Amino acid sequence: xxxxxxxxxxxxxxxxxxxxxxxxxxxxxxxxxxxxxxxxxxxxxxxxxxxxxxxxxxxxxxxxxxxxxxxxxxxxxxxxxxxxx
Length: 85
Description:
Blueprint: H1 7-29, H2 37-40, H3 54-84
């Protein structure tokens, strides 16, 4: 028996797609902190000058908020699919 796409499922699916794109963009906007795999192969030539900037901290906050919304959408979709099945 096919599962009907209800309004809340469609709305959460749309929000999930949007937050997935935003989360991807936010993660890609982060500056490299060094110490990762690139340093093993000689890519660690950049240095940090005095810690993170205000813009970088705001980007961190935005990334966390979008990540929480993304996770809430997944849990909400799971619950809606279980209730409707």
